[in-house]
């Protein structure tokens, strides 16, 4: 309990294990303001649920800690929860908006929620738009690329005609 480690060079699995051990070790202090300082070195292994709980305490996390959080945990946070985690350090998020993992986090947020932070963050999903994720593996189709592109370009027209046809019938 009295030893503080620096798990920054550890694998994600080790960070996760160290976080769980630290959480158990400091569980008695969970209700105290000092809890955040005790658990801080181990937050790189924290699950999203624990980060969401910390966000309610307005812990004023520094940006260097924020960008080292577990990726899947970070990606599941809402702009409001990030605001609760960063507190007075929230304006620093704008300086990181073009770098990973902040850039990746912004891309999965709704733009109107990002706008509520008043930081000028851009790149979130606009209202009424659908995010299409390009697969990272080669297509299995044997069709020439031109034919696939033509078929995809006709898809909106096809969907619109089906929609209009169903409305008129």
What's the topology here?
Elements: H1 12-25, H2 35-39, H3 48-55, H4 63-66, H5 71-75, H6 79-86, H7 92-95, H8 102-107, H9 111-115, H10 145-168
Looking at the structure, what is the overall shape?
elongated
In helices, the fraction of residues equals: 40-55%
Count of runs of 4 or more consecutive helical residues: 10
Distance between the termini: 71 Å
Q: Which oligomeric state applies?
A: single chain
Strand content: under 5%
- What's the β-strand tally? 0
Q: What is the H-and-E element order?
A: HHHHHHHHHH
Nearest-angstrom radius of gyration? 22 Å
**How would you sum up the major sheet?**
none
Which residues form runs of ≥5 with pLDDT under 50?
A: none
Quick check: average pLDDT?
86
- The computed structural class is mainly alpha
Structural commentary:
The chain has a domain at 12-116. It has 169 residues and is mainly alpha-helical. The model has no long low-confidence stretch (mean pLDDT 86). The radius of gyration is 22 Å and the shape is elongated. It contains ten helices and no strands. Helix content is 49%, strand content 0%.
